[in-house]
Amino acid sequence: MKPPPTNALVNRAILLTLALLVFSGSLGLGAVWMRQGISQAANESRAIHVQIADVERRLDDVNALVAAAVNPDALLKKNQSMSLGLVTPREIQVQRVNVSPELRLAEKRNREIFRVSVASLETPARAPSFQFVTAALR
Fold first, then answer.
1. pTM above 0.85, yes or no
2. Cα–Cα distances in Å, from 1 out to 4, 7, 119?
3. Dihedral sign, CA of 26, 28, 32, 34?
4. Which of 66, 90, 112, 116 has the CB geometry, 3.0–4.6 Å to 128, for a possible disulfide?
5. CA torsion through residues 23, 24, 29, 34, sign
6. Residue 2, CB-side half-sphere exposure with 13 Å CA sphere
């Protein structure tokens, strides 16, 4: 058997070398493209964090202004400066709420749903009817 010509072996080696260069070059370009995408995402994330910090700072400023406005001393000074003649409430005028305000408001809003209808009470043959509504707080 005759060995293959040497130029075919050289051509195959050159072709494999070119294929390896193209493959490694595409991998390198892909890596650069991914790094650029990661850098853009990091810059966007940094900008969003700056915006969040700015909003939190402004919210803290507003909370401080509200706290200063509802301070009892500030309210008394406003009362005197405007000559409103308001007085602080006495303890017997204060009504404390022990239940959750959300549940209390939901009960108040749905009170009519759970009432016995007047028409069902007037007819003794029928039992009182209720409307049942299931709801979740979430």
1. no
2. 9, 17, 111
3. positive
4. 116
5. positive
6. 3
